[in-house]
C-alpha cells in the first residue's frame, strides 16, 4: 500500500496553494517524489504523513529517571515550561519513550500553527495520518541538509535539528549524509505532534445527512413490509379460524364472528340447551348473513337471548339508514331489525318490536 509523505513549509506561511516536497513510498521504499501544491496532491484524497519545516521542528532531550507513564508526562510538562519561550498553554508538547540511557525526546509546536495546518489540509482534502519534526523522515543513523539546517537521526526515537548546519559539517559530521531518494525513507517513531490536532470536517454533514436519510428509508420500507406481512397473516388466521369453526359446528349457516360463535356453541352444548333455541339462533344468523351484508367484517360481538340475536358493532363501523330495501326483505321473511347505541338486534317481528328495543 502506498503512503504519501509531505515536507511542509513554515506553518505561518502555509496555504492550500503552497508548493511542497512530497514522496510516495511503497513497502518502505521511495517510488516517486516531486513538488506540487497541497490542492494538487489532494485530488486523490490520500492520508498523509507530514514533516514540519526545520524552523518549526523544536527538539530537545531530557534525562529522566524511570517513571510511570503519567509521571513521565508530568515531568516533561514541568521541564517544557523552562524550555519554551512564551506561555506553555499555547504550545503542543509531545515526547517519546525513555530509552536505555534514560533519555526522553521532547518536541513542541505552537497550537496556532497546528490549527492553521488542520484548516489547510481540510481545504486540500488531505487526511493527516501523522505529524513529526523534520529529522524523522530520515532513516536512523543518517543526516541531511535542508535550507541551511542540518537534520540528524540518531535512532528511531532520537533526532536533532542544527540551525547552523554548515558549521557542523565543517567541524566534521559523525553520521553520513543520505542521498536525495533516501531523504523520505525513514521509519516514523511511535509518537508525534498530531495527538490533539483536529481537522475541520469537509462535507461531513452532507455525508451524515445522506446516511441518516438512507437509514430512515430502509427502516420505513422494512416497517411497511412487516405491517403488510402481519396483515396478511391476520387474514390467513381469520380464514383458518372460520374454517375450523364451520367444521366443528356445521349447523351454523354463516360465520360472522368465528370466536364469539364458537364460544356460544360450546356454552350451549355444555348447558344442554334445547334444539329449538339452537335452530332459532341458526336461522337468525342465516338471515343476518343474507339480508345484512354490510355487517360482514363489522361485527364485534354476538349475543343470543330470549330468541333475539344482538350484533355488537366495531367502533369504526358504518351502518346504513334504518329504512331501505333490506328492511322490506326482512319483513317478508318474518323478521325485523332494530338499532340501538351498541349495534343491531334481530328477531321475529313480534320479538323485535317488543318495548326495550329502542330505534334510533
Total number of helices:
9
Low-pLDDT stretches:
351-360
Order of helices and strands: EEEHEEHEEHEEEEHHHHEEHEEH
Tell me the fraction of residues in β-strands, as a range: 25-35%
In the CATH scheme, what's the topology name of the largest domain? Nucleotidyltransferase, domain 5
Shape: rod-shaped
- Report mean pLDDT, rounded to a whole number: 80
Main pleated-sheet profile: 5 strands, mixed
The CATH C-level name of the largest domain is Alpha Beta
Q: Distance between termini?
A: 84 Å
The whole-angstrom Rg is 45 Å
Q: Percent of residues in helical segments?
A: 25-40%
Secondary structure tally: strands: 15
Care to describe what's here?
By secondary structure, the chain is an alpha+beta fold. The chain has three domains: 2-201, Nucleotidyltransferase, domain 5 (2-Layer Sandwich), CATH 3.30.420; 203-248; 251-360, no CATH class. Helix content is 35%, strand content 26%. It has a five-stranded mixed beta sheet with strand order 3-2-1-4-8. A four-stranded antiparallel beta sheet has the order 12-13-15-14. Strands 5-7-6 form a three-stranded antiparallel beta sheet. Strand 10 and strand 11 (159-162) form a beta hairpin. Helix 5 runs parallel beside helix 6 (258-270).
Amino acid at each position: 500500500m502506498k503512503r504519501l509523505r509531505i515536507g511542509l513549509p513554515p506553518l505561518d506561511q502555509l496555504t492550500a496553494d503552497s508548493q511542497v516536497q512530497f514522496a510516495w513510498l511503497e513497502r518502505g521504499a521511495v517510488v516517486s517524489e516531486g513538488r506540487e501544491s497541497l490542492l494538487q496532491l489532494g485530488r486523490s484524497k490520500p492520508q498523509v504523513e507530514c514533516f514540519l519545516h526545520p524552523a518549526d521542528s523544536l527538539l530537545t532531550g531530557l534525562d529522566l529517571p524511570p517513571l510511570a507513564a503519567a509521571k513521565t508526562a508530568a515531568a516533561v510538562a514541568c521541564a517544557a515550561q523552562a524550555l519554551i519561550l512564551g506561555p506553555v498553554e499555547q504550545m503542543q508538547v509531545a515526547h517519546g519513550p525513555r530509552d536505555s540511557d534514560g533519555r526522553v525526546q521532547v518536541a513542541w509546536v505552537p497550537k496556532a500553527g497546528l490549527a492553521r495546518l488542520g484548516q489547510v489540509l481540510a481545504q486540500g482534502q488531505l487526511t493527516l495520518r501523522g505529524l513529526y519534526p523534520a529529522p524523522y523522515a530520515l532513516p536512523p543513523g543518517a543526516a541531511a541538509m535542508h535550507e541551511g539546517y542540518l537534520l540528524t537521526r540518531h535512532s528511531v526515537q532520537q533526532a536533532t535539528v542544527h540551525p547552523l548546519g554548515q558549521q557542523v559539517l565543517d567541524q566534521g559530521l559523525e553520521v553520513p549524509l543520505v542521498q536525495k531518494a533516501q531523504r523520505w525513507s525513514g521509519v516514523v517513531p511511535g509518537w508525534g505532534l498530531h495527538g490533539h490536532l483536529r481537522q475541520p470536517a469537509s462535507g461531513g454533514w452532507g455525508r451524515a445527512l445522506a446516511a441518516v436519510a438512507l437509514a430512515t428509508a430502509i427502516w420505513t420500507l422494512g416497517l411497511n413490509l412487516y405491517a403488510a406481512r402481519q396483515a396478511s397473516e391476520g387474514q390467513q388466521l381469520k380464514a383458518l379460524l372460520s374454517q375450523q369453526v364451520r367444521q366443528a359446528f356445521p349447523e351454523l349457516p354463516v360465520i360472522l364472528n368465528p370466536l364469539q360463535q364458537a364460544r356460544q356453541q360450546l356454552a350451549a352444548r355444555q348447558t344442554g340447551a334445547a334444539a329449538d333455541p339452537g335452530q332459532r339462533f341458526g336461522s337468525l344468523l342465516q338471515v343476518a348473513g343474507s339480508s345484512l351484508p354490510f355487517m360482514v367484517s363489522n361485527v364485534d360481538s354476538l349475543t343470543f337471548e330470549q330468541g333475539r340475536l344482538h350484533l355488537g358493532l366495531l367502533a369504526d363501523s358504518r351502518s346504513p339508514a334504518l329504512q331501505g330495501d333490506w328492511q322490506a326483505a326482512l319483513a317478508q321473511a318474518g323478521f325485523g331489525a332494530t338499532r340501538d347505541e351498541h349495534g343491531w338486534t334481530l328477531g321475529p317481528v313480534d320479538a323485535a318490536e317488543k318495548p326495550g328495543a329502542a330505534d334510533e
